[in-house]
Amino acid sequence: MEFRKVWSRYRRTVLVPMMMVKLGLLCAASADACSSSPCSNNATCVDHLSDYACLCPRGPVWYAGKNCDQLYDACITAPCANCTGEPGTDRFSCRCPDGLTGLNCTEDVDRCQSAPCEGVRSNCVNAVHGYSCRCPPGLGGADCQRNVTTCSELACQNAATCVDVPDLGPRCRCAAGFQGRSCEEDVDECRSQPCQNGAICQDGLDAYQCFCVPGFQGSHCDLDINECASRPCQHNGTCLDEVDHYRCDCAAGFKGVNCEVEIDECKARPCQNGGACRDHVAAYTCECLAGFQGQDCQVNVDECASGPCLNEGRCRDGVNSYQCDCEATGFVGDHCEEDIPECASDPCQHGATCLEGINRYQCLCWPGYEGENCQLDVDECGPRPCDHGGQCFQRSDVLNYGTLPELRGDIFSYEEAAGFICRCLPGFTGDSCSVNVDECASAPCQHGGSCEDRVSSYRCVCPGGFTGVHCEADVNECDSNPCNQGATCEDATNSYRCHCPEPEPGREPWGGPDCDVRLAGCRQHRCRLGAGCVPVLTGDGEHGYTCLCPPGWTGNRCNTSTTFSFNSEGYVHMRLPLSENGTRRETEVQDRDGLHMQLRFRSTLDHMVLYYRGTAEHFVSLELVGGSLHARVKSGKVLQVTYPALVNDGEWYQATVTMDVRLVLVVKGPGCEEYCSVRDEGNNHLVFLQPGSFQQLYVGGAPREYLPQTSSGRGFVGCMEDLRVDHKPLLPQDLIREDHQGLQVGCSKQDWCVDDPCGQRGRCVDLWVRPGCQCHRPYHGERCEEEYPSWTFGHENTTSYVGFNITESHGDNFTLSFLLRSLKHSGLLLQLRREGKAYLTVYLKEGTVAVYSPHTTLLLEAQSVTDGNNNLVAIKVRYGHVVFPKAGNHRALGNVSVEAGDVAYVGGLPAGERTDAWGGNVKGCLQDIRLDHRHLTTEDHLEGGEVYQAGTEENVLRGCQSDDTCKGQPCSNGGRCRVTWNDFQCDCSRKYSGRLCETRLWCVASPCPEGVRCVDLQDGYECLTEAIFQDNALRYVANGSLLSPVTSVTLDIRTRDRDGVLLRAVGRAEFFYLGLLNSSLLVKLDSGASGEPLAFTSDRAVADGAWHRVRLAMADPTRPASRWRLAIDGQSVGGSFGVGGNLNFLNDTQIHLAEKYTGCIGEVRVGGVYLPLTHVPEAPQTSQFSRLGGHEPIIGCQGAPMCDAQPCLNRGACQDQFNQFNCSCAAGWEGALCEMEVDECSSGPCVYGTCRDLLADYQCDCQPGYAGRDCEEQLDDCVEFPCENGGGCVEALEAHSCSCPTGYVGTRCQWRFPPVACDAQTECRHGGVCIGGDSGGNCTCKLGYTGARCETEIDECASGPCLHGATCLDRLNHFQCVCVPGFSGSSCESHKEERKEGIPWLVVTIPLITLCALLAILVVFCLVLTARKKRQSEGTYSPSSQEVAGARLEMGSVLKVPPEERLI
Questions:
Q1: Taking Cα atoms as reference points, which of 25, 4, 30 lies closest to residue 13?
Q2: Percent of the chain with pLDDT over 90
Q3: What's the confidence (pLDDT) of residue 887?
Q4: Fewer beta carbons below 10 Å: N end or C end of the chain?
């Protein structure tokens, strides 16, 4: 009974971990594993933490195991070894061994209770499996006659413990490190010589210490120190570890103790012939002077080896050079590459092409020229080719261009110079003037005038009403201005038409032939229903009006309704009279005389006939097919047009059908307000239609014998109006007198769907006279009030199925459909069998529908259908292909057809048939199962269609029922269980969450201080925050609480400190260090397992003021030892070269955080366990670090306010970057504080110009001939830049260009062409040398001269080389600067220092300045007096002055007379 209570308590507490493991009541599985129903023996499967749990039943038979498929054995939890249990119950019994007793065999049998000892050894001592008889206390010996001492009489030393041993007396149990009877002797631990490698052993109390000789370490000095661990050998040198030292085996090219010195291979000067040696690692290279090659530049290059001289020129090799001798080759140039241009003298005349040859040339003449140099012009006019007195002109005569009309627009070209032109006399034409011109051929006479041809002329004979040379003038009757009131006159043939103006508001319009009559017909109009009125004037001058009636009305006053309706299927039959133009229709077709039908209608039905006109063989019809209008005509051949838009929306539409040379349907209505026209492209098919064949008219339908000719086959139900047949209206009064069925005058319509008669179980369809419902499955009935029954399969994990016998053949075109509700992702839905073999299976696989047949592979529907809701599954098979409607796929299935005699199994298979391949039986509900039009049902009577009755069924429940998923009480911690169709939901209390309320929510109690973020864990909580540290370290200890190996350390930091300690811990033989060194991370650790400490740094700095996440982890945490990896912000930045073990010693060692560190620290985790930065209450989780001490840090992360002082200059924006700032400078400024202006000219943006720096910009001053922002555009405008060498500037195509004189070419006429030959007449001035030959040459000038013939001396002063106001003197090939006082240098660039005189400079300067000022005043005064005296005697009429100065007056010295003193 006690165990039953324990079992019951554990049964209620599902989540106790030990019972999960021992009893197997909760089993782990993959996500959503309950869908496969893994639990047996009516066990309940529940989802739990991405697993599932099987709740095994408690009786009458008990089960256990992974899936509750094993009988429970109570001995599993029995405390005894020899247990006998009753399978399937909680009862067991223990068979105890000798010496033990009790329910669980845990009690020892006391054999001394029966006092078995007698005599002198009467002291009974109980023992396991027996007892012993000993002497009484204080006595000993074989006969217990000897007195023995007791512990009270024996003194044990050195904290030893005294124990009384029966029969022997007291004994001392010595403490560790002591021995002897009284533990008085200290044990020498060094006697066993534990210290190795010559170490000195020092004995201690129960301990010893080894003092190692250099080169060894470890507790026993047994570890040889690896001097190579620090990798002292540089440049890939190999380190050889030896005792107490190391030796470096250097790589090639290096030497030194640590291979730190690179060997200079160039020291021996291996390069010859002046080559430059470049030292490399273990190698060298020689950079040879030009003309030498080889590894050591020892080979002289033969420049003639490549054969540079062309055309048989001889090559002479030199040092780094060669020379080509072109003598007697016929070529010139450095490589004898230039053929001497015999054509340079332009020997070929008249535009002929000169072909170069070797020492010869050939002229290719244009047609019309001949001779060796094409100098002869062939005279084409010599044979007199022009007839009828025509005058001949040669095309080769330049004077004819611009003179002859035929050549007036042409430019003379030698290419077109061959041939002649005949100028014919009037009346003749042709190349030879041989053709007489027919002036009437161009039909010059207009408006039907006849043309009479004459010699070199014609005459037009005009018809009546036209005049003019070409009969082009129509007599304009509007010239007399016959129209009044500003009307517009339109001229017509022998007549005119007046278009009267629009009337003013409130005034009557003008009318009459000349717009001179006010139209007053609408003053007393009687148009009804708001119809518009149009005044008219009759032929006899009477005023009247016409009413513009709205749709549905007609008559002179719009008082006659044209609307009628059909509320049931019927039609109106009438016989139309034969039109008067019927006989003429037989012979010709005119636009106005075709058949014409027009009406307006409205309806909500989609299939019906609007009218039918004609007979079975000859007819025209208009009907609605699928909501679209179809017009059809048949007369030997069928023509049809369709208006595709839907017109059955209950709105009014106008449809017009015309038939003349083609069939045309015109529709007007919503969406087509301006008329939409569709027509049959074939024409001339209706020309032979007899109007007598269309006399029978049926409105709203057709007789039964004519309905097969239509597509809809049903009569019209709806409203019609404005019916016109052959342009004549048919009123309801006319129709109601005829033979009619269902016709009613007027139109009334009720909105049937406004109240939703289908109750949201279907879509309401307005059937005009009543509502209709298109029901959603599984509903049916007139108002979708009925529902097809549903069946439950696999209720409470039972095995169920139902079978149906197929009695009708469906062939290879069939559809399977049903509604499915399930949460199980796999299971057999339906299987079709023939003769016991399955040929089509529909099943669930991973939540989607799959189809399988023996002929093909698996076909899957893309959408999940196992979401617990009703989902419609429809599988269409068409000729061996499966059509998934939702996915739109057509996939081959093979030869599959449903025949009579087949069997369909739904939900599973009978006993003995395996369903494992299909995921077992389905669990859920199926409803409205259909095979084409037949329902598969278990009901005795089912309304709504044909059925297949169930033949066999097993464990199928009516309706869609859920399992009792709460019967196993799955909710923990007081959670309340609610059943949700084959699932459950736990309503948890405020402190718990999770599917089973198994997760404790610790943070709801707000255990963390204010401003600190609380995060729930599985067994506790963490208080996460950021904090500022300023040399205030914290200490932590885990106290052995870490359950997992410590294979990683992570922390978030933000600092600008270059050095500091982040984490540090030291154990007995282990240590760990993570800190900052020169802004990078430094890691040192020794786990004590590898025997070799590890040390490495990061290759990336972190002290930049930004947040960084640092992660240090073992590369392979599953191994005892592996390399360690260091990452910053997810990117690898370093790692160890050696291997090390985990950091499990941190589980029992103090950890120091943020020693000598200033900055922010965020989340810190050791082995995934958080180190709290602030003081928090005792957390409940098992694994945690506790704070031992340290100064409390400041919560948050805020640096000093760096931007408060506004350090950025020139409108720069300051950006605070955590204890540092950055200036974002305005445009045009740079520098740390935006203190320097940017020189935009530093990049040299001006291509052909000088750059001027501006603030945040630059400006280019372009050189002549260039433009653009960067002076990158070259100008060819000779208006700005004049032509050289006498060239003229001419305008052409809105631009200007240079017209060069003979002998010059180029955009500015700056080049000579052909070039002047170097001959006896070519003179290069000033010692220049002509280089070239007879074909052309250039003068190479001496220094200081330039020009084509070295005729110009270069002005070296033109560039203004002299500075500080100096005078520049031009010299030959140089310049001389005459500096002003105080400057010196070749360009006067240096400022001379003033000499230090003994006399103060003021003493000398002031008198000199005063003296100069007085002299300047005196000079100015004298000049004024002289000027006045001279003006008085010159420039005016003064006989006395002339007598003094002489008879002649020098006019060149006359001063300009002031205006007030001029004589004229």
A1: 25
A2: 30
A3: 47
A4: C
